[in-house]
């Protein structure tokens, strides 16, 4: 049985995805970015990451999970030169959890997007 979680983002309907999907003890959270609810983007990668992590926390909570349940994370970053500014936000969120992680460098949908964070969580 699958449960779909929506954050209300307009992208969910336009592109056709759920913020998160729960399947048994697993929760898969789609990539989250630095877009605010009004569609504007926060001005720097650290604040964008914090915003993305807050959206992830809320999606996990809505699904009955917690950030400490995260076992896998993928970061998509637009520029290698931004990693030093990004690292403190990631360490604050995942420093004690230490999930398996991958960082990819690529363009994102909007030029203002600097980072996208996607997680997989396992309950128990």
Automatic annotation (TrEMBL):
Gene3D superfamilies: RutC-like (3.30.1330.40)
Natural source organism: Haematobacter genomosp. 1
Name by which UniProt lists this protein: RidA family protein
InterPro entries hit by this protein: RutC-like_sf (IPR035959), YjgF/YER057c/UK114 (IPR006175)
Coiled-coil features, chain-numbered ranges: none
């Amino acid at each position: 049985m699958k449960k779909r979680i929506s954050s209300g983002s307009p992208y969910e309907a336009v592109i056709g995805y759920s913020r998160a999907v729960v399947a048994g003890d697993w929760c898969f959270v789609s990539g989250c970015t630095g877009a605010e609810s009004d569609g504007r983007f926060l001005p720097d990668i650290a604040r964008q990451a914090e915003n993305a992590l807050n959206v992830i926390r809320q999606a996990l909570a809505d699904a009955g999970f917690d950030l400490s349940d995260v076992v896998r994370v993928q970061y998509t970053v637009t520029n290698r030169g931004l990693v030093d500014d990004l690292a403190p936000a990631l360490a604050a969120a995942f420093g004690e959890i230490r999930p398996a992680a991958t960082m990819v460098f690529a363009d994102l949908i909007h030029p203002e997007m600097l980072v996208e964070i996607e997680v997989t969580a396992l309950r128990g």
